[in-house]
Amino acid sequence: MPETFAEFADVFSRYGIQGASPQLTERLEQSFSTLPPEVSLSKGAALLTALGEGGYDPDAMAWAPSRNGVYAFDMEVSDLERMYTLFLAGVCSLAPEELAFENIREDTSRVDWEKGTGRRTVTFAWRGEEFTLETEMQNDWFNPRLANELSGIIRARNTGKQLFFTGDGYQECIVFYRDKEWADAFEAGTGIALAESF
Predict the structure, then answer these.
(1) pTM, whole model, 2 decimals?
(2) Are the CB atoms for 144 and 73 separated by under 8 Å?
């Protein structure tokens, strides 16, 4: 099994996850060397997070997802009003042609912002159908139920692929859109367990 960030980068590239430069792996290796011994974060998951977190698009003046085979996000979300809009954009980036979600609209009119409670919906069009996902507000935390609902919608459309999830042992969610054969091979090659639900 891979042990260093560079080794993980090499293995990930075999599974179609690109973008791990030597500079990135060296920076992460240095960062991990300063962690106290009681902190047990996975190097593989940390590299996937760095590769999948996206970045700032100066042209759009907004966050832009990565397009390298992985999407990762912090479940304690900073952009509360567009929490699930950004999630759908991140999932779409995993396969822009197949997961071409359009006309995304998020409704937070039933949210009590002071209490961090209430219900919210996100609506989107895909493959000629419109879908609305509804979930309970959990302060500034992403509700995994919505990810599972989206996963069910994708599986039901028989694309041959589905969403797979893993984490970093802390609060990152890492998402892939692949077939089961890929997921099984990825688990065997990396030692990183994937789940079909979040």
Answers:
(1) 0.94
(2) no
